[in-house]
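Structure ticket #2291
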Amino acid sequence: MSDIRIAGVVGGSITDGPGIRYTIFTQGCSHNCPGCQNPDTHPYDGGYLESTEKLISEAAHDPMLTGVTFSGGEPFDQPGPLCEIALWAREHGLETAAYTGYLYEQLLEMPEKRRLLELCDVIVDGPFIMAQRNLDIRFKGSENQRIIDVPKSLECGRVILKEDGRWIASDDEIII
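Resolution: structure written out below.
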């Protein structure tokens, strides 16, 4: 187990993905999106160090938990410790989701970040863009962001999006 720099944790979250989530807000983000809802998570020297062992132990004590969400900050800037947590979640049948300012296609090309991507079930990708902010869309902050089924996307070799409760390929083919 290792240490991770975090801004905080929210147990029992119902806003960071479907079901009841254990949400870890990582500390540090180079995207610095104007209008970000968590600007205090941008400095890499902020927040505090926590052990992945303690975070897993806290999550394990919630029998109602359906998933783990990595938010931030930028989770993909600390992939190693988050991989440990994602592996634990997978072993316990919990969905793993991550919010990232990177695009899915960028993460595929970054070997140090790709392993975490492969351990996620869902990512919400893309930077927050204030001009595209929309409070009526679920689980996204701005309309440019995509909710991506990672395993299906890796398997198909193309992005599979979730829109209006359906999984849709990036070429608008309805998958489910």
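Closing remark: The beta strands are 3-13, 21-26, 48-51, 67-71, 95-99, 122-125, 146-149, 160-163, 166-169.
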